[in-house]
Automatic annotation (TrEMBL):
Domain ABC transporter as annotated: residue spans: 4-241
SUPFAM superfamilies: MOP-like (SSF50331), P-loop containing nucleoside triphosphate hydrolases (SSF52540)
InterPro entries: AAA+_ATPase, ABC_transporter-like_ATP-bd, ABC_transpr_FbpC, ABC_transpr_MalK/UgpC-like, Mo/tungstate-bd_C_term_dom, NA-bd_OB-fold, OB_MalK-like, P-loop_NTPase
CDD domains assigned: ABC_Carb_Solutes_like
Annotated Gene Ontology cellular component terms: ATP-binding cassette (ABC) transporter complex, substrate-binding subunit-containing
Protein name, as recorded: ABC transporter ATP-binding protein
An MF annotation (GO) of this entry: ABC-type ferric iron transporter activity
UniProt entry tagged with the keyword Cell membrane: yes
Protein family per UniProt: Belongs to the ABC transporter superfamily.
Organism: Psychromarinibacter sediminicola
PANTHER family in the record: ABC TRANSPORTER ATP-BINDING PROTEIN, MALTODEXTRIN IMPORT ATP-BINDING PROTEIN MSMX
Keyword entries, A-Z: ATP-binding, Cell membrane, Membrane, Nucleotide-binding, Transport
Cross-referenced SMART domains: AAA
Amino acid sequence: MAKITLDNLAHSYLPNPASEEDYALKELNHDWQDGAAYALLGASGCGKSTLLNIISGLLQPSQGRILFDGHDVTHAPTTERNIAQVFQFPVVYDTMTVRDNLAFPLRNRGRDEAYVAERVQEIARMIGMEDMLRRKARGLTADAKQKISLGRGMVRQDVNALLFDEPLTVIDPHMKWELRTQLKSLHRDFGHTMIYVTHDQTEALTFADKVVVMHDGRVVQIGTPEELFEQPEHTFVGYFIGSPGMNVIPARIEGDKAIVNGTEIELGHAYRPQEGKLEIGVRPEYARLSQAEGLPVKVRRVEDVGRHKVVRADFFGHDINIIAGEDDHVGADMNRVTFDADHVNVYADDWRVAPSERTTPAGEAA
């Protein structure tokens, strides 16, 4: 296990990058704590795999350094970094049995056969392949081969870090849940530093201690699932996390009020004057339909998803989503929406603005 430090790190695939836009991975400084489980989350092309491949040594960064426990490994080959990496598509030895595929990393490091046999049996049980150990890998399904790849990545207990690059893409949905559970169990039992790349928010939020959200080559927020949900630091985080994502509406900010098309919206905090593109962001969970107050909206449709309803509405060309309870009545006269003031965030040029102070509701002591 190791603490992984990214120092002034950036990367461009161009030979002579001239501006920030030329970088696939924009400047990053961060410590991956020893023994923590991280998820790199973002849309395709945002830089997730580039960052993972730099950490593993498959790619040399254009600038900056990678340190493992304070030791500079920027130019060290992958073999010297003592990491295990599992890729999006299965990489197995077709001519070997499942047992020999799982045993290969241990035998390659000279472990005795008694330990190899015990560890292979344990991993085979974790990935549900105990009854296939004698079979050749050739001819197995893609998801079976990927389980072998996962098992081979997990079989060593002495690695500095385990890196996973969208490893469950070819796995069926039920097995995805099973394997995520096993990875969490592995982390809990052995405390490996784990970094898991995915574009699936469910995978990220259920796997990781901390989620690293990337957008356009930049890390826009690192936080717990609760932090990402309650206080998205960038409008992309609000949009990408949640289903539906956060409502983002242009507004003018005046102290503890937001003015949206002439309608005042109470904010839970006061804000200093801001410049640039100003917006408010509020989760659909904190929006409510009303008959008499709030923003005027036109309800377009109501989607009953079983546990709740998703109300899709329009506000002067802006989509607004509201989550209502399964038993809540949505009447034709409910054409306004209100927001929970304590859960309205303010954004300037897409970045969250910190409030200046907490407002005091009428009737309460300051």
